[in-house]
Write a structure and sequence with these properties.
By secondary structure, this protein is α/β, with parallel strands linked by helices. The chain is built from seven helices and seven strands, in the order αβαβαββαβααββα. The two termini are about 30 Å apart. It has a single domain, classed as Rossmann fold (3-Layer(aba) Sandwich). It is globular and about 50 Å long. β6 and β7 form a beta hairpin.
Amino acid sequence: MSVAAFFERILPLVPGIKARLADGLDEACGSGRAVIAFAHAVPASRFTGIDVSAEAVASSTSLASLQRLPAVRFVQGDAAELHRLGTFDLITALDEVHDQPRPARVLRRIHESLRTGGMWLMQDIAGHARLADNREHPLGPFLYTVSCLHGMSVSLAGGGQGPGALWGRAQAPEMLGAAGLDSGVVETLPHDPIDDYSIAKGAVVGRS
């Protein structure tokens, strides 16, 4: 996902979020590019990125320091424990929930960490768990292969469930609902033939 596409095409799915965004969190933030871009776009707000990789967190922290972004922090940790970082007005989970060893627990923690009136946004593959059901997807066979060789193995290597990148349009809503994250809106976007975007309001699924 390009940061430019995120601000131009994806974030508008969450109307008015910039105006009420005091604290944001990107779960499994990787290189931290999205967090740093947020900090530049909404300089009066605070942003947190959490990632299991110590190398990624060190690199992101150094980059934020070089760009003089004191309201940005990067934390090494398990996304299944992100509730320890506080509560947030916006939580993003960008194409990575399926990689988590404990995805159901991660989703519950996201629910617990949303402030009332806050929003959550999940980007994930618009696929199906059965290979035969992906025939209409423009990249179905390729994504299924990647799911088996990467997404599933990353989760299994951490002792997890291994849902894979194509955990499915059927399984994902069930897991979201069980976590209290009943998606208010599921969108597809013209620029992105691969993903679905799920959006929910903290006023419905979160806490104060």
